[in-house]
Predict the 3D structure of the following.
Amino acid sequence: MADQVAVLAEPETWQLVEFLASRIRLIKGDGFRTTLGEGLIILDDEDAPANIDTAATAIIVDRISGASANRVQATSDVGVVIEFSVPRNQDEARPTRLVHRARKDLMRVLMIDVRELPKGFTSFEVVDSQLAEVTDDAGHSSVVAQITARAGLTELFQPVTNP
């Protein structure tokens, strides 16, 4: 008989990425300056086309720093970057203005009530936001709104015993 592998839920950090994507998808229609929630949202490499020539939002967990741990529980700070990028010289006539609008919309949906966060998360706060112009190695220029946030996480673990 083959060993059975239990199907486990995704790790809390990935659940946070998916939760943030669902928040960003709210950005459409009344009360928002953009419709970026209807656009390309990149969570993983497979979501990104080879040559991105349209506006896109990426959500990246860039840091998980442990604060304390014991045998069955660990407390960490999770760093998240949400980046909205608009290529210059494409379909968008005013990419810089669109990035300013997108930043405002993103900030609005990132004001999250702690009770709405996925299980295990104890806090969420926007730490910083910035606007920038970037050029890749191929010389393609984009305008970017980047928001950095921090989430408090308490992970529970099932102890592993020796056989």
